[in-house]
Amino acid sequence: NAGVTQTPKFQVLKTGQSMTLQCAQDMNHNSMYWYRQDPGMGLRLIYYSASEGTTDKGEVPNGYNVSRLNKREFSLRLESAAPSQTSVYFCASSEQGGIYEQYFGPGTRLTVT
Amino acid sequence: AQTVTQSQPEMSVQEAETVTLSCTYDTSENNYYLFWYKQPPSRQMILVIRQEAYKQQNATENRFSVNFQKAAKSFSLKISDSQLGDTAMYFCAFSTQGGSEKLVFGKGTKLTVNP
User: Looking at residue B100, what is its pLDDT?
Assistant: First the structure.
């Protein structure tokens, strides 16, 4: 039982490049989330998927897209990376919605130069 | 909009002592849930404690307990018998029941436990 896994763990991009962050959970959870963590800002929600087949914007969605590929997988795509997207990205999942415990992946440290 | 405020960016405590981390929140909802998450230097976020707003009894988990004051919209975390492994960032978070499924986080308190 791996919980929530994320790939890659580290990534360096040049401005304008694109990439996809992958996330998978093996707990049969319905809800999945993408957050970014910046110093002094806490965690901010980028996008979430309340259940398979649905996605919704969070607090900071600009510059990102997501795909809920199936119940297990939820990917985050940066189409044209910008230095402002330098951050640590966390994927999380929960049984159903924000009132339940969220289980987090180990994070991806992304640097955009 | 719901907001969560942690007024102490950093705190320190001696090993074996007790420390309290503050959290206040703002909401017009009546049914909601409050959480404390811990993020050690390894970066792995884990749940410390969860409180349901309709329950008057304060939640406890071993050395961790909360002081939940609904009228004051306050949700502080008390760590008793602090251990070196408690050194971490602590985030207070809030979610409404039947709402938009979003968990709103505070900006965190960095706690250092000194030997």
Answer: 60
